[in-house]
Amino acid sequence: MTQETEIKFTAADYKNEQTPRWCPGCGDHAILNVLHKAMSDIGVAPKDTVVVSGIGCSSRLPYYMNTYGMHTIHGRAAAIATGVKTARPDLTVWQISGDGDGLAIGGNHFIHALRRNIDINIILFNNKIYGLTKGQYSPTSERGTVSKSSPYGTTEDPFIPAELCFGARGNFFARSFDIALDTTREVMVAAARHKGTSVVEVMQNCVIFNHGAYAAISDKEHRADHTIHLRQGEKMLFGANMEKGLVQDGFGLKAVTVGEDGYTLDDVLVHDAHTPSYYLHEMLAMMNGHELPMAIGVIRDVEAPTYEAGVEAQVEQVKAAKGYTSLRDMILRTTESWEVK
């Protein structure tokens, strides 16, 4: 074991001297602090970590990291992160995007990163609004949302990030709230340890333009009955006293009270994030906290070949077959050349 791998990092090692410039009470503060702690749990050195962002309130985050950081352009964070990881597969790459940056102008990059299964960790800050540009509705705003760009209410349905993830053949999806610090830390660590594209949706409160967007689900008085924390190999139980559970109901799911209507603990489903089939994972991720509890925690975590590993193996294979040792060597050896006059 090398001396470097024996070094233990603390959250302070990932912070810099910059003061975060977000509104007081913004959920971004909590997410940043948890990310520092999660990175210390993971143990990758700051010099081997890259944080890439696009444009938006959340995309200020690289400025507050003592790592390499890239504040790129609107919607292109996934493209830049893909390039970084492909060129330097030894680095740990995090992508920070909001629901507008990641799913509107950046939506195409988002789904193709998932399809390729490039080993990057996408943290999607979802406040269901455009905050930086002062309150226009976003791709995740609910139908009927009244905003500066929809004064009479939106007339379109929102994207659900999990649905996009599974539709693009994503292999890792997790969810948390900005106020659920331990859960957010847990899923960030799991995302980093997953090999391939990981998506962590953090439902984040914008105190200025969409305050209380998740209050009906996340407030202390509602949380136990309206959310379910999924854990690998454990029964899908929820409620203040863990008295409720999820059971199979035909081709769907149903919430029941254990001990009532003939349902016992044996009827309650056991969570398996590692099963290759995504059908149950998608049903769990689509629960909205009303008819069925909203799922938080790691919902899907399945191994699959990664893009950068495939590219690296292909490059080595071609180099060995052609006898190339460098790009210059390849250019000098080629028989296809021309002179520009």
Based on secondary structure, the structural category is alpha/beta
The proportion of residues forming helix, as a percent range, comes to 25-40%
Walk across the major sheet and give the strand order.
2-1-3-4-6-5-11-7
Shape: globular
Task: Show the helix and strand layout.
Blueprint: H1 27-42, E1 49-53, E2 68-71, H2 77-87, E3 92-98, H3 99-105, H4 107-116, E4 121-126, H5 161-167, E5 172-177, H6 181-193, E6 198-203, H7 215-218, H8 220-226, E7 227-230, E8 237-238, E9 244-249, E10 252-257, H9 279-286, E11 294-301, H10 307-322, H11 327-333
Parallel strand pairs: 1-2, 1-3, 3-4, 4-6, 5-6, 7-11
Antiparallel strand pairs: 5-11, 8-9, 9-10
Helix pairs in contact: 1-6, 3-4
Name some characteristics of this structure.
single chain, about 350 residues, alpha/beta, 8-stranded mixed β-sheet, 3-stranded antiparallel β-sheet, 11 helices, 11 strands
